[in-house]
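Form 12-C: Joint structure prediction
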Amino acid sequence: MTSTPTDDIWEAMSTARTIRRFRDEPVGPDVLARCIQAATWAPSGGNQQPWHFVVMTSPEAREALAIGAARALETIERVYRLQRPEPDDDTPRARNSRAMFALHDGAASVPAAVLFCVRDQPSTPSLTLGASIFPAMQNFLLAARALGLGTCVTGWHVGSEPEFRDALAIPEAWRLAGLAIVGWPQGHHGSLRRRPVHEVASLDRWDTPLREGDQPAEA
Amino acid sequence: MTSTPTDDIWEAMSTARTIRRFRDEPVGPDVLARCIQAATWAPSGGNQQPWHFVVMTSPEAREALAIGAARALETIERVYRLQRPEPDDDTPRARNSRAMFALHDGAASVPAAVLFCVRDQPSTPSLTLGASIFPAMQNFLLAARALGLGTCVTGWHVGSEPEFRDALAIPEAWRLAGLAIVGWPQGHHGSLRRRPVHEVASLDRWDTPLREGDQPAEA
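Section 2 - Result
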């Protein structure tokens, strides 16, 4: 049971796995506000805090979620060539895939969703702009994990910006950066699958893997 | 002393303040590897893990840091109209500014620096691409904070991409996303300054502040 609440940072970070199945139980605004407060503790360029968080619960907001999810699912099906698994297929892959389809099909009734927006800065490259919003999103996800909530980051807003902007009255100057689905997890879930450090980290030259025990050059 | 090591996620997140002054003490590769492992626990689009982390310690790497910092400083001085504080000015503002200048002046001899790279995905908007690297950077910063390290995120790479790419042999298909300076903090430091949740969070409509105790609409 890796969804047990925990205050231990190492446990929270190493078990903050994507959750796609939620119990039919509301997520209170007080809990969400606590996660959003954690989001605001993140760094941002020049400590400008160019962020805004929108909790999506209204019928109009849920309609935008449904539209965004349906479009995102079309793309996922095409790009990853995914098909709905047969009802009697109980392999881990089929169960995973089934949860993914169910999440998208039920987008309008997810327990909670939070949209992460960032104020545009014309002189800042778009990728760099992300440094002022995604650290906040990660803090949000970790706080949620610490409280025992499950989260799933989706790109439902990417192909449906007009619908999201309209439903939530998002000002022109703000960009839609990320969307997190939040809820109390259903069942338990396994551990993270990640590549090891020496495959993804280098010491000084790209082709030189970082290994513990390496001695860096003197400053 | 908010730089004391801690395993408490709330303490780590709420005290992970930018640090610009470091003790003259190396940061071992084992410690950096531990922070990078925490980085890999972050989510990424489709769990593709399109990240690569480069620890910068060689003379060539440090030369790139120095060039990048000098250019970044020019921009900061111009945009924020900053001037070097008078030697006898001991206001918090002057101390802050002095630390900022000192960090840039001494860029070539920072204890450690880690460059966060993300593999380009032509069909993904640049802002969205950030969702697959900056959560990892935030995990790195939090792990560093938990271990008692101080960090400072900079944009030194932004105006000096060719120099960074050259020094570290970064492949064409990878983009430079973020740069973190890491070291054992000198002295202690104050608490975070952040706007309160009700100023940065909305319930359903942009102009409706989220307040604890709000009752969301039923799903």
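Section 3 - Comments
The helical segments of chain A are 9-14, 29-40, 59-79, 92-105, 126-129, 134-146, 161-168, 197-200. The CA atoms of residues 48 and 69 of chain A lie 31 Å apart.
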